[in-house]
Amino acid sequence: MTEPDQMTIREMCDAFDVTPRTLRFYEAKELLNPIRLGTRRLYTRRDRARLKLILRGKRFGFSLEDIRQTLDLYDREGGNSTQLLRTWQLAQDRLAAMEAQRAELDEAIAELKAELEASAPAIESLKKAAAEAPEDH
Q1: Straight-line distance from the first to the last Cα atom of the chain, in angstroms, rounded to the nearest whole number
Q2: Are 35 and 42 in contact (CB under 8 A)?
Q3: Strand ranges for the chain from DSSP E
Q4: What is the pLDDT along the chain (137 residues), one digit of tens a residue?
Q5: Dihedral angle, C-alpha 102, 98, 46, 12, nearest 10 °
Q6: Side-chain-side CA neighbours of residue 17 (13 Å)
Q7: Which of 48, 60, 91, 125 is most deeply packed, by most CB within 10 A?
């Protein structure tokens, strides 16, 4: 099955599992540029390709501004080498940031586990004392 040349906002929402509000937001941010026929929006193959890249970029944690700038680097005549180089550098930077976040999270998890382990005997004592205490009626 081939994709149609143009899709309505509803078809885009269904195809990409996004809301109309999301598409309008990306349009307002100049990330998408659908054809306007009165109040109707028709999305081209180019819009669909851009939306795929936007959603992938968001999943990886890129800012909308980084995504917009990267999309704007595409040169229809000269190809996408500048865009690919910029995307590669952004991806390298994002990966480094994600790995640093993971290291910080791993450290915090280890510290929290140690705190829980260290306080476990005191908690058990409190539970035991509460179970042995006579109930007030």
Answers
A1: 75
A2: yes
A3: 6-8, 35-37, 40-44
A4: 556 789 999 999 999 999 999 999 999 998 999 999 998 999 999 999 999 999 999 999 999 999 988 888 876 666 788 888 888 999 999 999 999 999 999 999 999 999 999 999 999 999 999 898 877 65
A5: 30
A6: 2
A7: 48
45-59 and 64-72 helices cross at what angle (nearest 10)?
Answer: 140
| Burial class of residue 100 (count of CB atoms within 10 Å of its CB; 0-12, 13-18, 19+) | exposed
Q: CA Rg, the chain, in Å?
A: 26
pTM of the model: 0.70
Neighbours of 90 (CB within 10 A): 18
Closest CA to 20 of 67, 11, 29: 11
What residues contact 32, with CB distance under 8 A and at least 6 apart? 23, 26, 43, 47, 50, 51, 54
